[in-house]
Design goal:
By secondary structure, the protein is an alpha/beta fold. It is 37% helix and 23% strand. It contains 16 helices and 16 strands. Helix 8 links the parallel strand 9 and strand 10. The model has no long low-confidence stretch (mean pLDDT 96).
Length: 424
């Protein structure tokens, strides 16, 4: 049988296959490993995966890649990022080194508000170019699908500008993008002391405007989901305000996500579970009872350990407890200019193994199949299974565990995106 691409002779082919949904519990330790593995690709989709001798006998390929002594694995899915912004927060980086906390900086008018000021002033072309460079960094490190949040506009005009940036990026960059509206990211300076009035603006003007944009975008015919998120935290929005925003967005067709328990357990998990959120993210302050409830739900728990590392913290989310309780756990970079200026999911895995006590198999499943389910895309990407999108990495190491064992080095040698070998 004729195919377009055959990758063969891998020391390990790692499928991360999970046809029944995200991996949980003991299944997190199973990466679907096939020794001397091969992958056949027809067009943009996976035609077959299995032993090299079997696939080389069954398929003739227009192009072949020899993966001898290397690993074949799924492309990574970064399911929580804020990568469209202007400026940087390097001054605040120094302030934190001197002892200031993230919340103290935010309360003093810095933090998110600093990036909002720069982003409002930036022309769209500057935002597109900056985000394109960040996507390049992510792609070179193996990310093939990424969620991108708005939230650095906090007014209708700029939030729409950020959404239009995503529309442009989807056309010019190989990474598949998933848009998320995060108008409830912070209270902008012009609404200081009036968070409920700002929530009224998000609900009454901003959300309908971005919903109209999405309805006319190319994301709709491609079947890409559209999400809404809210930052339920001190100095941001309480659980009642977050729920108001997400319920209004859900009525406009946006699927809910929640930033919850990053610093304080403020009820964000309750909001996420009550609304059937696709994911609940951060969870650094989440207690045992909330962990049990997350595990009993269909909501994916997204943990972001690079944030804790970047902020110099010694306390991390209880990812081990989430997995052991049976939750579907995903990892993500939270790529953003303030709390996580990091484009690398391999670095995220390295931190998760060392500080969150994840095994390398659990970390890999958390940035592939489970991260895909955190974006409602688990039926399309995140694993090497017949019929799924051919998003594939060739890793320059003989064992998949090197992805977590090594850090400060990029082991990704080739990226195959939708069946096409892309030059890095």
């Amino acid at each position: 049988m004729q195919v377009d691409l055959l990758i063969h002779s891998a020391r390990q082919l790692v499928t991360c296959a999970s046809p029944v949904g995200p991996k949980r519990g003991e299944a997190m330790r199973d990466v679907g490993l096939i020794e001397d593995g091969a992958l056949a690709i027809a067009g943009e989709t996976i035609e077959a995966c299995g032993k090299s001798d079997e696939l080389r006998a069954a398929y003739r390929a227009a192009q072949t890649l020899d993966a001898t002594d290397k690993v074949i694995c799924p492309g990574f899915v970064d399911c929580h990022t804020h990568l469209v912004f202007a400026g940087d927060r390097i001054d605040e980086f120094e302030l934190r080194i001197k002892g200031a906390t993230y919340l103290e900086i935010m309360a003093a008018g810095g933090g998110i508000a600093t990036t909002v000021r720069a982003t409002r002033e930036a022309p769209m072309e500057q935002l597109v170019e900056g985000a394109r460079r960040r996507l390049d960094r992510m792609f070179r490190r193996g990310t093939t699908t990424a969620e991108c949040k708005s939230g650095y506009g906090l007014d209708t005009r700029t939030e729409l500008k950020l959404m239009r940036v995503l529309d442009v990026l989807e056309h010019i960059h190989p990474i598949d993008l998933v848009p998320t509206f995060l108008g409830a990211h912070a209270v902008p300076p012009e609404y200081a002391g009036r968070p409920d009035d700002y929530v009224d603006l998000v609900i009454g003007e901003m959300a309908p405007a971005v919903a109209e944009w999405f309805g006319a975008s190319h994301f709709v015919p491609e079947g890409v989901p559209f999400f809404a998120d809210a930052f339920c935290e001190q100095s941001a929005f309480d659980s009642k305000q977050s729920r108001r925003v997400l319920e209004a967005c859900a009525a406009l067709g946006m699927r809910p996500k929640v930033h919850a328990d990053e610093f304080t357990e403020l009820g964000g998990v309750d909001v996420a579970l009550a609304l059937g959120a696709t994911s609940v993210d951060h969870l650094d302050a989440t207690g045992a009872e909330a962990i049990r409830r997350i595990a009993a739900s269909d909501t994916v728990a997204v943990v972001l350990p690079v944030v804790n590392f970047n902020l110099g913290g010694t306390h991390f989310a209880n990812a081990r407890g989430l997995i052991d309780a049976g939750a579907a756990l995903a990892l993500s970079t939270d790529y953003n200019p303030g709390s996580s200026p990091c484009p690398s999911l391999p670095m995220t895995m390295a931190i998760a193994c060392r500080y969150l006590r994840l095994l390398p198999a659990e970390a890999l499943n958390a940035v592939t199949i489970n991260a895909a389910h955190a974006l409602a895309l688990g039926d399309r990407t995140g694993s090497l299974e017949v019929g799924k999108r051919a998003d594939v990495l060739i890793v320059g190491a003989p064992d998949y565990r090197h992805l977590s064992y090594n850090f400060g080095v990029n082991l990704i040698e080739r990226v195959v995106k939708r069946g096409r070998v892309v030059t890095l």
